[in-house]
Amino acid sequence: MTRDQLKKALGARIIELREQKGWSQSDLARACNKDRQAIEKLENGKVNPTLYTLLELANALEISLPVLVRLS
């Protein structure tokens, strides 16, 4: 898997988990103290998030980090 493929797969996973909670991008952004544009870039695979950002997302979604990054 290339870097770009990994970023897109992670973005799709974030969308999936966010939608399971019935949240908009704005809802997720508020829950992890980010702006909506940052969430949009993550979901579109435009950025390579830090480990800390991934942890913030997992905490906001009330899941563990391994559940967040489960891409299969």
UniProtKB/TrEMBL annotation:
Lineage: Bacteria, Pseudomonadati, Bacteroidota, Flavobacteriia, Flavobacteriales
Keywords noted in UniProt: DNA-binding, Transcription, Transcription regulation
Protein name, as recorded: Transcriptional regulator
Alphabetized Gene3D superfamilies for the sequence: lambda repressor-like DNA-binding domains
Annotated ranges, domain HTH cro/C1-type: 14-68
Organism of origin: Chryseobacterium camelliae
PROSITE patterns per record: HTH_CROC1 (PS50943)
Transmembrane segments: none
Pfam family, one: HTH_3
Highest taxon listed in the record's lineage: Bacteria
Keyword Transmembrane: no
